[in-house]
Write a structure and sequence with these properties.
156 residues, 58% helix, mainly alpha, two-stranded antiparallel sheet, single chain, elongated, 2 strands, 4 helices
Length: 156
């Protein structure tokens, strides 16, 4: 059974609203604005507490339902295992049925911990040795070297 949530014991009123209610309680207890006064603020706090209680009860019910569904799943799997064992014995004289029964266990889903890790998508990382823009540096005497020499000569 899940532990009780701390909000049942703690005040669920937001700090800002708590400060405003304290202001109205201390300094403005009899002041009334159109559709807003201390009584209305206090009733809104009570509505919030009721909503929080309902939320916590629903969360507890959801957790209980999940646990019940998990137990039922485990019970069903145990019964299916037992039924398969009976079917193996029953199918001993029938080769086609024996093969079909034998194949049932092979298709059983693996637990998530044994599942294969998904492959990473995207481009492979660059080789650390290849840090230039286009790979290897141009060889001495290549066109790009000659062009830069020609450019330098033209500037002189």
């Amino acid at each position: 059974m899940p532990a009780p949530s701390p909000s049942l014991q703690a005040d669920v009123t937001p700090p800002f609203a708590r400060e405003v209610i304290a202001l109205f309680s201390d300094a403005l207890p009899k002041v009334q604005f159109p559709d807003l006064d201390l009584a209305l603020l206090e009733s809104a706090v009570e509505e919030l507490r009721l909503a929080q209680t309902a939320l916590e009860q629903a969360a507890a019910a959801l957790e209980a339902a999940r646990e019940a569904a998990q137990r039922k799943t485990e019970q069903l799997n145990a019964r299916a295992e037992r039924a398969l064992a009976y079917a193996r014995v029953f199918a001993e004289g029938n080769a086609a049925l024996s093969e079909r029964v034998a194949n049932i266990g092979r298709n059983k889903a693996r637990p998530a911990s044994e599942a294969a890790q998904p492959r990473k998508r995207g481009r492979p990382k660059k080789n650390q040795h290849d840090s230039s823009l286009f790979g290897a540096e141009p060889a001495v005497g290549s066109e790009s070297t000659r062009v830069s020499v020609t450019t330098e000569e033209a500037a002189a």
